[in-house]
Amino acid sequence: MSLTFVEIERQKNWRIAVFFLVLLSLYFVILTTLSLSFFLIAPPLLFLIKGFLFRYLLIVISVSLLVASIHFYFSAFGTVNFLIKNLGASKPDREDGIHKRLMNIIDEVQVVTGNKRKIDCMVIPSLAMNALAADNFTGNAVIAVTEGLISRLTRPQLEAVVAHEAYHILSGDCLEATVAASLFGIPASIIEVSQNLSEQGIMHPLLIPTWILLKFSQMFNMFISREREYRADAGAVKMTRNPVALAEALHKTSRGWRGAGFIGSGLEMLCIINPKASELDEKEGWLADLFSTHPPIRKRVGILLRMARASLSQFYERTDAGEKAAVSEPAKAPELLYYVYNAEQEWQGPFNLAGLSGLAWLTPLTWVGTAPDEEIERASENSIINAIFIKRLIQTKAKTADLTCPNCKQALVEMPYERTQIYQCNFCKGTLVENNKIPRIIVRDEEPCPERIKQLSRAVINEKQKIMTMKRLNSKEEPKTSIPFKNCPKCKKPMMRRFYSLAYLVEVDMCSFCGITWFDKDELEMLQCMVENRIVPEIELANEA
After folding, report:
1. Is the bond preceding residue 489 a cis peptide, omega within 30 degrees?
2. Which SS3 state, helix, strand or coil, does residue 514 take?
3. What is the model's pLDDT at position 146?
């Protein structure tokens, strides 16, 4: 497709030279103001420059030219990377279906425009609905679209938005706007500081010319901004042949959160609509043209609909009716049915959520699936079923902690034990203990050790000792006593599965980063029982005999 009007718009980059002159004038006024303020503080020094006025002006102009050139260089060549980093934007995820659709649209737009420019695509991690384009003298052009816009627009609407931003890049308007937004960012911050000082009554009167000059430059850029949006809308229609899609995208975007507070001030002219909703944006006249960065949305939509020979009133009636219908009649998702693998290793079901919540034997580690012969998962890994376990914890009125069980993926409950505080899982009965509390718990024997724990302790310690002895006999190397196992409930890093000590062969999971130890069910009680009852491996005594 031929874009002859694009070539015409490229000839208008002379405005960038005007921006540089405005910037140079701004720095000249600032340096002059600062130097004169210094001489006013020390009046005798004012007589020293009377004979060197020409030299004084030459120095001020030279310094202003140097500072303005440096400022202009970084603004014209490094703005795109700065904006991407500032907004936290990243390249689209190729594994994501929505992001992949955006990448396909970018490729299609580049083909339509004849691949005249290499345009990168970025995604801004924000729920706002907006899009912007940035360009610099290095040829590094980028179109950045928010997650909210990608997810809420249809494919034709997203195509129209991308075509709108691509036109800005191809026409050279984007280069002007990007440079202008960067050039006046530093002076704007100076003015903001001056305004803060003025509220305290200590603003110097010589800063008034600087304020007037900056406002004049902003008016000049904003006046250009309104014109360029109309041209970009027309360019997008010429590329997509779908004016209604762009009208719908503008209307839908204007009704949502546009990114105010996330997209910083000074970037308005780079966006498809102003991130901050303003009454002035919806007005016309010379005052709105000077101070508003974007034309009225209703007027832009009206122009687009006239291209499609559609009625503006009918358009708004149809879109408003669609929004009300979406709110009043939400789509009902079909109820899912699940099969559950019980302790007898049999599949039970199907159950709905109400039926699952009534199963007393259902735990976060239970295997579930929509069908027995299809893909299955742990109950805790299903976000819908996991709500059942969260509800159970709430009903127990237990004090939960910001720690998660490494087995069940459920919140741990803070509870007293041996007159100290530990964290326990209500489902698998595992226990999390801080390392400095373990010695206290071991030496405290307020509760007698049950016979079941005694027998379990003897069986475990004999079995572990037998395994270690066999490893020593079959290998000359020392056995490895620690392997990565579960993730730490606190830092999420792998814990080391190891014996608590070579004297008490109870396997525990230790996190060397957080100084905490995870005991599976009965492991803490077994450790206490071994120490209290002096349980030692019987196999060692047999060998000695």
Report:
1. no
2. coil
3. 92
Amino acid present at 335: E
Q: What is the pLDDT of residue 39?
A: 60
Top pLDDT among 412 and 46 is at 412
Give the CA-trace dihedral at 189, 191, 195, 196, to 10 degrees. 30
DSSP string, 139-173: S-EEEEEEHHHHHHS-HHHHHHHHHHHHHHHHHSH
d(CA 329, CA 327): 6
Query: In the chain, what are the domains?
Result: 90-182+216-320 (3.30.2010.10), 338-397 (no CATH), 411-544 (no CATH)
Instruction: Compute the C-alpha angle 394/398/400, nearest 5°.
Output: 85
Q: Which of 159, 165, 176, 268 is catalytic?
A: 165
Average pLDDT for the chain: 76
Establish whether 165 is a catalytic residue: yes
CA 219 to the chain's CA centroid: 33
DSSP β-ladder status, 411-417 and 494-499: unpaired
Identity of the amino acid at 10: R
Distance CA 525, CA 533 (A): 12
Residues 6+ apart with CB under 8 A from 260: 128, 275, 276, 277
Q: Is the pTM of this model over 0.85?
A: no
